[in-house]
Design goal:
By secondary structure, the protein is mostly helical. Helix content is 69%, strand content 0%. The longest helix has 24 residues. The radius of gyration is 16 Å and the shape is elongated. Bound molecules: the ligand O=C(C1CCC1)N1C[C@@H]2C[C@H]3C[C@@H](O)[C@@H](O)[C@]2(C1)O3. The ligand O=C(C1CCC1)N1C[C@@H]2C[C@H]3C[C@@H](O)[C@@H](O)[C@]2(C1)O3 binds next to helix 4.
């Protein structure tokens, strides 16, 4: 009902704030758009579930997420995929992995700093009721 749509609208605002905060950080520029599968033809052979910050924003607008945890599952794909596809000891891979770990930590830090636990519970109640 109305109150549920109010909660889910606030969730979308919160998730856009988190996503835009990450997208503004220059360290995370490589995570902003999908990996170009023409430039990297074996990418989809290695990475089964590609994800990036622009796709997170599209998912938010399409009302894919009812809880913060559902959003975090997709957001975690961004850094997990980067660790998986760039595992080597050469400097470029190590650089990407440092940025992937920085993204992992920034994501959790922003959420912990800004998420009200009562609001997260209200979202989980809606998910449980559907
Ligand atoms: O994994 C990624 C992105 C970095 C975080 C996400 N890519 C796979 C390719 C390997 C490496 C060098 C370039 O070939 C460039 O195309 C990519 C993009 O970086």
């Amino acid at each position: 009902e109305e109150q549920e749509e109010d909660v889910l609208r606030d969730l979308r605002l919160f998730l856009r704030y988190v996503t835009e905060s990450l997208a503004q950080d220059r360290r995370f520029k490589a995570f902003a758009k999908p990996v170009d599968t023409e430039e990297v033809p074996d990418y989809t052979l290695v990475v089964k579930a590609p994800m990036d910050l622009s796709t997170l924003l599209t998912n938010i607008d399409e009302q894919k997420y009812v809880t913060v945890d559902e959003f975090v599952c997709d957001a975690d794909l961004i850094w997990k995929n980067a660790l998986e596809y760039n595992p080597d000891s050469d400097p470029m891979d190590r650089h990407i992995r440092h940025r992937a770990c920085a993204l992992r930590d920034a994501l959790r830090s922003i959420i912990r700093a800004e998420l009200n636990e009562g609001f997260q519970r209200a979202c989980e109640e809606i998910r449980a009721s559907r």
